[in-house]
């Protein structure tokens, strides 16, 4: 019933391969191109996280709290980013006695990796005619949720391996929280899948480009945020818990358990955790954008720019929530998750299924 | 109210003869302190006498326990008063033998005596028989000797053998087969508001037991005051007890006790200035308390913390114009204040009026941000509950007691300064939980603003030739030897009292501070047992302890 | 839920109005009140070496060395130890020691913060504020009056 509207279906590795090796592509050439594509996408997301961590987060927090924040180094303080990078990497890497070595080392890598992996199937739109999507498998959405939830494993590993009670509590809280919120998250996403009938991310995006209604000459596209606002709100809330931001930042909870699983990490490991968390927020934003906000769709500007704008909007929202919403307690969090969110998300799913079944 | 209590309450206050009858032959001797009559009882009859006074005579508030060392005896003084009427005071004096300083503990009668007697044991060396947990409280466990006793050798170095130190990294399998986990919260922890160490036993995430370990910030404030002259040298120090903006309230505690001791009158004009500036300090201190409490619940540098700091900054600017300093004021002097209002006065009054006009809007914003926030409410309502009976038992005062429904405020109950001439209310809440304590503080800011506004009106119309800021006070003050006085004021955190015994010189013989934070903190265990770690942190934040005042 | 939204609206209002409360110190030097108490300034020309400041100082911050003729030789002040109570200025009968508004000083070691009389003399005024102007009124309350013994040396 929907015509695929993707204007530029060629995926990024193929584009690169054609650029480098012509039209005949051997299997190893494909691998090299895939690697280069992954490198490019990872760097784009790392750059975003790099801007977000040392600079944007401070600026945003400062705006909410009537302060000035970074403005000494470079224009608008932007050079704080390389300065912070050098500073953090130059710090001594302290590995406490009695840590569980391979797990302790793997945790930060795994966290950053899991967040980056998710971007492999996200349709990021195109810029200069190049489509920036890495891969477009039929199980795209399932893949994203699967790799994103590896992050929980990383947090638990880090918390458990650190040989620190605060870290342990942070790790345990991370599991409890993620189990309680990932189910509503995925069930809510499933309600969208009922609409689309596919898990393929490019297809989900394509189906959102249809006009929904036209009011006074203004066409509102059929983004699922407009089609099913209830699911959108549910998803946003569950997403806050999934990325561990206020009011659900309890695995970190600096004023209670110091910094949870991050307590014993320093230097480059800390950077990996820190960056991993930001990339995770952006991945959350990317999922929200893909599933509910029409992916890279938008007027005038290239799709990729719209995509970046959307994930930053979600990032802004997490920071906004952080400025004004208190942290809930662990038992309340579990209660909200199991007794509230889960029920609501299933209700939403059933309702959607009924509506789709009756109407279409 | 028992029949005895009615009989004891006369129009002029306490009928001490009736108390003497009540205590009967337990009274060895009677002493007269400036604030109250002292009844000397035998060291093995302390608990009985105090029980009688509490049950029959209604003295339900053990304000402070002072221990001191005379040449021929150790002495413990229990300063008793009533939550219902602060002007009713009585002291129970317990002398003990210097060779074998054992005295019966009062911890079975008043829970607050637990910590007070530990401090007395730690610093002076009196041993309390029947005390549930007689350990050092301010000094480290390894400390040799009792510093405030006369046989203590100050020059002897405190050498602790290496093997006496416990290696903090050593494997510790104590309680390995139990289901609980021991957790050190602090001394370096984002939520302990200073160097406080909570030895916590957790059952999962729930608090099974919490034992505050204090003394990291012990700076010998009492002894420093004992080495300063009454006239000038003591006054800079109170600023440093409760250092979070409550300086003038602390200074007033010293000013009040020293003025009573030396019989100094304070001009009315100076009293108004004192009242106004002290209330500014209360606003600043409460704003900080609200901000850091929000910080504990929200995490990180939240907006509410920064807004509270910003508004506190405005108060500090006003105080800086008046006193010359933002936190360590040293503004009060015995017999008045050091400076008249800053010139040009109109401009300064204008600043204050601007602040007071903005305040309702600002508070409205706080209410929008926190009070009405449902998530905040689910976090704080019903957590950290302190019921009124416990609140009295632990000797809590100030916003903590008032949030448990105890209508107790020294500004009204034992008036000083200009408070009894002004129109304001004592704020109480019934819940006794974290939310109630927060609400009490917010409303007290409004009440303080009311007081300030009335003071400004009075000061503006004050005749120019009657602006007397200090009375004539001799350059050297030497109160009669062995005069004892205990007086308290309403500090930012509660009843801030000072006991002074003069020894005939121009310096106090014994200077003892009753810290409200110290007593409030002792209730933490009762308040947070069985709750979650986040509630423990929130409860600690809502108690609003300043470690400088706890440890002194 | 309404309360949560109200909270978020409040912070958003602050973010949108763009006003800031903090200033860019040291580019913007803060205003200090004329009564503010900072680093001391000492005038040997005025000083009569009565040692009252040394006596009144609560924590022995001021050290005065005199020769056997009671002429002043040294005037040392440990500004790292000072509690800025201003009692020395208050007690001085000739305004020889003053607390300026200057609060900006550093030292690499504690010893660097022990100022001798030359260093104390060279302490600059902060923004050309002369503290004496604002502090004149309290002088009468201090000197001469009172019924107790007056212990001038």
Structure in words:
The complex is a heterotrimer of chains A (360), B (552) and C (153). The longest helix of chain A is centred in the first third of the chain and has 38 residues, at 27-64. With 360 residues, chain A is mainly alpha-helical. Chain A has 14 helices and 4 strands. Mean pLDDT of chain A is 83; it is low at 1-8. Chain A has one domain (101-355). With 552 residues, chain B is of the alpha+beta class. Chain B has 2 domains: 3-129, Beta Polymerase, domain 2, CATH 3.30.460.80; 221-551, Orthogonal Bundle (Cytochrome-c3 Hydrogenase, chain B). Chain B has a 5-stranded mixed β-sheet with strand order 3-4-7-6-5, covered by helices on one side. Chain C has a single domain (32-142), classed as Alpha-Beta Plaits (2-Layer Sandwich). Chain C is built from 6 helices and 5 strands; from the N terminus they run αβαββαββααα. A 3-stranded antiparallel β-sheet of chain C has the order 2-3-5. A two-stranded antiparallel sheet of chain C has the order 1-4.
Number of strands of chain A: 4
Average pLDDT level of chain C:
77
Largest interface in this structure = B-C, 47 and 40 residues
CATH class of chain C, please? Alpha Beta
The percent range for helix content of chain C is 25-40%
| Mean of residue pLDDT values of chain A | 83
Largest sheet of chain A: 2 strands, antiparallel
In spatial order, strands of the major sheet of chain C run 2-3-5
Instruction: Describe the main β-sheet of chain C briefly.
Output: 3 strands, antiparallel
> Shape of chain A from CA axes?
globular
Q: Architecture of chain C in CATH?
A: 2-Layer Sandwich
Q: What structural keywords apply?
A:
heterotrimer; B: 552 residues; alpha+beta; Beta Polymerase, domain 2; Cytochrome-c3 Hydrogenase, chain B; 18 helices; C: 153 residues; Alpha-Beta Plaits; three-stranded antiparallel β-sheet; two-stranded antiparallel sheet; 13% strand; elongated
Layout of secondary structure:
The complex is a heterotrimer of chains A (360), B (552) and C (153).
Chain A: H1 12-21, H2 27-64, H3 80-90, H4 101-118, E1 126-127, E2 130-131, H5 140-148, H6 150-161, H7 165-196, H8 201-207, E3 211-215, E4 218-221, H9 224-227, H10 229-242, H11 254-257, H12 267-292, H13 303-324, H14 330-359
Antiparallel strand pairs in A: 1-2, 3-4
Helix pairs in contact in A: 1-2, 2-3, 2-12, 2-13, 3-12, 4-5, 4-6, 4-12, 6-7, 7-10, 7-14, 10-12, 10-14, 12-13
Chain B: H1 3-8, E1 9-10, E2 13-14, H2 16-23, E3 27-32, E4 37-41, H3 46-55, E5 61-69, E6 74-81, E7 89-96, E8 102-104, H4 113-123, E9 127-129, E10 181-185, E11 197-203, E12 206-213, H5 221-226, H6 247-262, H7 268-298, H8 303-323, E13 332-333, E14 336-337, H9 345-371, H10 374-380, H11 388-393, H12 398-403, H13 410-413, H14 434-460, E15 484-490, E16 495-502, E17 508-514, H15 516-522, H16 524-528, H17 533-543, H18 547-551
Parallel strand pairs in B: 4-7, 8-9
Antiparallel strand pairs in B: 1-2, 3-4, 5-6, 6-7, 10-11, 11-12, 13-14, 15-16, 16-17
Helix pairs in contact in B: 6-7, 7-8, 7-14, 7-17, 8-9, 9-14, 14-17
Chain C: H1 2-17, E1 40-42, H2 52-56, E2 62-66, E3 72-78, H3 87-91, E4 97-99, E5 114-115, H4 117-121, H5 131-135, H6 139-142
Antiparallel strand pairs in C: 1-4, 2-3, 3-5
């Amino acid at each position: 019933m929907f015509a695929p509207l993707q204007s530029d279906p060629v995926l990024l590795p193929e584009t690169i391969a054609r650029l480098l090796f012509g039209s005949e592509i051997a299997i190893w050439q494909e691998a090299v191109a895939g690697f280069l594509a992954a490198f490019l996408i990872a760097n784009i997301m790392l750059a975003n996280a790099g801007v977000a961590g040392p600079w944007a987060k401070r600026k945003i927090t400062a705006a909410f709290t009537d302060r000035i924040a970074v403005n000494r180094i470079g224009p608008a303080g932007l050079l704080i980013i390389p300065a912070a990078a050098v500073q953090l990497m130059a710090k001594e890497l302290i590995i406490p006695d009695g840590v569980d070595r391979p797990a302790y080392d793997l945790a930060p890598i795994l966290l950053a990796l899991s967040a980056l992996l998710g971007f492999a199937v996200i349709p990021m739109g195109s810029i200069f005619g190049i489509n920036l999507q890495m891969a477009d498998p039929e199980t795209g959405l399932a893949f994203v949720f699967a790799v994103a939830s590896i992050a929980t494993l990383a947090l638990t590993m880090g918390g458990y391996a650190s040989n620190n009670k605060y870290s342990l509590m942070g790790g345990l809280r991370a599991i409890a929280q993620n189990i309680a919120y990932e189910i509503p998250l995925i069930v809510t996403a499933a309600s969208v899948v009922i609409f689309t009938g596919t898990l393929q991310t490019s297809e989900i995006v394509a189906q959102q480009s249809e006009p929904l209604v036209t009011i006074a000459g203004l066409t509102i596209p059929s983004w699922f945020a407009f089609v099913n606002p209830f699911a959108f709100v549910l998803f946003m809330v569950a997403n806050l818990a999934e990325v561990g931001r206020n009011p659900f930042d309890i695995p970190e909870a600096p004023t209670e358990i110091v910094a949870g699983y991050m307590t014993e990490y320093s230097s480059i490991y800390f950077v990996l955790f820190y960056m991993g968390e930001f990339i995770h927020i952006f991945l959350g934003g990317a999922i929200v954008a893909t599933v509910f906000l029409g992916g890279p769709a938008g007027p005038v500007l290239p799709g990729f720019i719209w995509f970046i704008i959307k994930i930053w909007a979600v990032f802004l929202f997490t920071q906004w929530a952080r400025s004004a919403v208190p942290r809930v307690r662990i038992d309340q969090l579990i209660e909200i998750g199991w007794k509230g969110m889960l029920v609501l998300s299933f209700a939403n799913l059933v309702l959607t299924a009924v509506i789709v079944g009756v109407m279409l | 109210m028992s029949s005895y209590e009615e009989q004891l309450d006369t129009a002029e206050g306490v009928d001490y003869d009736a108390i003497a009858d009540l205590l009967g032959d337990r009274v060895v001797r009677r002493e007269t302190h400036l604030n109250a009559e002292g009844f000397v009882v035998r060291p093995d009859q302390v608990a009985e006498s105090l029980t009688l006074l509490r049950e029959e005579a209604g003295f339900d508030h053990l304000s402070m326990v002072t221990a001191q060392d005379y040449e021929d005896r150790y002495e413990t003084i229990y300063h008793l008063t009533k939550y219902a009427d602060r002007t009713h005071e009585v002291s129970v004096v317990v002398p003990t033998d210097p060779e074998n300083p054992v005295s019966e503990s009062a911890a079975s009668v008043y829970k607050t005596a637990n910590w007070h007697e530990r401090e007395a044991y730690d610093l002076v060396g009196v041993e309390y028989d029947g005390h549930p947990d007689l350990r050092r409280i301010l000094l480290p466990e390894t400390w040799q000797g009792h510093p405030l006793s006369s046989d203590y050798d100050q020059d002897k170095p405190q050498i602790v053998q290496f093997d006496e130190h416990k290696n903090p990294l050593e494997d510790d399998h104590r309680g390995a087969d139990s289901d609980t986990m021991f957790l050190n919260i602090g001394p370096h922890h984002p939520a302990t508001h200073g160097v406080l160490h909570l030895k916590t036993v957790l059952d999962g995430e729930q608090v099974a037991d919490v034992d505050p370990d204090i003394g990291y910030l012990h700076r010998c404030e009492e002894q420093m005051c004992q080495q300063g002259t009454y006239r000038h040298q003591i006054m800079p120090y109170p600023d440093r007890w409760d250092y979070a903006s409550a300086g003038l309230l602390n200074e007033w505690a010293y000013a009040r006790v020293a003025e009573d001791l030396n019989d100094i009158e304070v001009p009315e004009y100076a009293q108004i200035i004192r009242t106004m500036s002290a209330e500014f300090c209360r606003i600043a201190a409460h704003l900080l308390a609200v901000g850091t409490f929000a910080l504990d619940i929200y995490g990180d540098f939240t907006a509410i913390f920064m807004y509270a700091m910003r508004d506190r900054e405005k108060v500090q600017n006003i105080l800086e114009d008046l006193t010359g300093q933002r936190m360590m004021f040293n503004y009060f002097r015995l017999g008045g204040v050091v400076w008249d209002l800053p010139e040009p006065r109109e401009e300064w009054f204008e600043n204050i009026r601007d602040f007071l006009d903005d305040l309702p809007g600002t508070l409205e914003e706080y209410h929008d941000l926190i009070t009405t926030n449902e998530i905040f409410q689910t976090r704080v309502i019903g957590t950290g509950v302190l019921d009124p009976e416990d609140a009295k038992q632990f000797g809590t005062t100030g916003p903590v007691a008032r949030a448990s429904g105890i209508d107790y405020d020294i500004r009204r109950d034992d008036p000083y300064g200009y408070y009894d001439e002004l129109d304001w209310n004592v704020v109480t809440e019934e819940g006794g939980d974290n939310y109630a304590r927060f609400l009490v503080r917010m409303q007290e800011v409004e009440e303080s603003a009311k007081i300030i506004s009335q003071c400004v009106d009075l000061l503006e119309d004050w005749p120019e030739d009657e602006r007397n800021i200090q009375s004539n006070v001799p350059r050297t003050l030497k109160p009669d030897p062995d005069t004892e006085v205990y007086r308290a004021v309403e500090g930012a955190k509660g009843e801030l009292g000072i006991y002074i015994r003069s020894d005939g010189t121009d310096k106090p013989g014994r200077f003892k501070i009753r810290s409200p934070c110290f007593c409030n903190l002792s209730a933490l265990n009762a308040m947070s047992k069985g709750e979650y770690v986040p509630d423990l942190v929130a409860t600690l934040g809502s108690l609003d302890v300043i470690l400088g005042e706890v440890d002194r | 839920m309404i309360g949560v939204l109200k909270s978020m609206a409040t912070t958003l209002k602050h973010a949108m109005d763009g006003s800031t409360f903090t200033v860019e110190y040291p580019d913007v030097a803060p205003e200090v009140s004329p009564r503010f108490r900072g680093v001391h300034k000492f005038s040997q020309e005025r000083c009569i070496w009565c040692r009252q400041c040394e006596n009144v100082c609560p924590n022995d911050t001021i050290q005065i060395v005199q020769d056997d003729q009671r002429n002043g030789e040294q005037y040392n002040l440990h500004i790292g130890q000072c509690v800025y109570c201003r009692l020395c200025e208050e007690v001085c009968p000739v305004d020889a020691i003053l607390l300026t508004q200057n609060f900006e000083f550093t030292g690499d070691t504690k010893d660097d913060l022990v100022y001798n009389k030359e260093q104390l003399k060279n302490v600059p005024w902060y923004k050309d504020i002369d503290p004496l102007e604002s502090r004149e009124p309290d002088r009468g309350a201090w000197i001469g009056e009172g019924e107790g013994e007056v212990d001038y040396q």
